[in-house]
Amino acid sequence: MADSVSMSSAFDSKSAPFSATPSSLSPDVSDRFADLGRRFEQAGAVGLVVIGAPMVADVERRHGDEARKRCLESLRDRVSGIAEERLRTNYVVCLAEPGCDEVMVLLFRNPDSAGFYRTEMPDFKTALARALQADGSQVFYPYLKGGPRLPAGMSVELRNPQFGTSTQLRRLIDEARRDCAFETEAARKETRDDLLETILDHRIYSVYEPIVEVESRTVYGYEALARGPEGTTLHSPAALFGAAEEHELVFELDCVCRESGLRGAIDLPADTKLFLNIRPTTIHDPRFQEARLIETLEKCELTPSEVVFEISEQESIRSFAAFREMRDYYRSLGFQFALDDTGAGYAGLEELLEIEPDYIKIDRAMVSGVDQDPARQDVLSAVLTLADKMGSQVIGEGLDTIEELEMLGHLGIRFGQGWLFGHPTPLRPSD
Hints:
The protein is an alpha/beta fold. The chain has two domains: 9-187, Reverse transcriptase/Diguanylate cyclase domain (Alpha-Beta Plaits); 202-421, Alpha-Beta Barrel (TIM Barrel). The chain contains 15 helices and twelve strands. The strands form two sheets. The protein has an eight-stranded mixed beta barrel. Strands 2-3-1-4 form a four-stranded antiparallel sheet, with helices on both faces. Strand 11 (393-396), helix 15 (402-411) and strand 12 (415-417) form a beta-alpha-beta unit. Helix 3 (56-63) runs antiparallel to helix 4 and helix 4 (65-86) packs across helix 5 (116-139).
């Protein structure tokens, strides 16, 4: 594999679970105005639920336009499935016009419908939002981790012969979008309030996922994974840090997560390493500089040689100067570094040479199904060859099956991580 090739290209051709690989998006709402107008005339009333997907813009920035199209098609297909389960007839699911990352569901009132505005429309909107929240991680895999919050808006229009159907349909869309924007802002404020409370009250706890030697099946180390308060929308790390990025509280959240990861590591088994996620801005935290950091480690019965700092591929490339400063500083104290999510972004093999990680963690999108995918096997072999030249170790993430584990061993990859070895849990069982 040429050094200039992005490792993400090896899986970008793979479709998400709910979509085919599109070369162009399917017809949008503007293409269907004539048909929608006729159905509006017949029904006399039409309702609209619009689902916004603002996070798709970030997918496009990170992975390109085809990834954006794939996400929108995947979302459209999932919305269609939910509509088919919840609605009998007289509805249309379609994408918004170009430039608007939305999926629309138009419901035409049945003659015998009762409570169209007060019950039928709101109930469907609520059911749709809940279902999408539950399986959002599948809809947007592998481009987004976790289930992002998808804002929804609703409106209803009654047929008025004084206006053209196109005019009324446009009014319907505009009103639903205003409703969506109102809901988005209300949800945004609620999320910020919850996040501030979580950070200020240190309501973060850590679970630990084992990293296992492939050949011996023995535990080599544990990755500390942050969790927000249980039973809240901030429980998952994707939701936590997604909210922190939106509200510019990443540094503050990162500090609390690191403290939590270290506190829980006091129960780390002997002769194992702690893998701790950090960001380039960590170096600016006074609590994480030499004297106080060493003191903290001593309280946790850890030494720098037992700790591996993880940083994502995207973070390291995006803020390379800051990353290099941080890497050199902490290495001088005896810490090691792991490059996380390798293969999930645009980094090619030449970027790995610049970063010089001690460990290269291959993203689960590259590991999933590797036993049945020669292309993925070739990519992992190329990464392993480079890792050997740099003196780096390779860790395959997201292992779910014995077959995947055995393929990693066959390729010569030393370490693996994933639910095959158990779900992340606290190191000390709860009382």
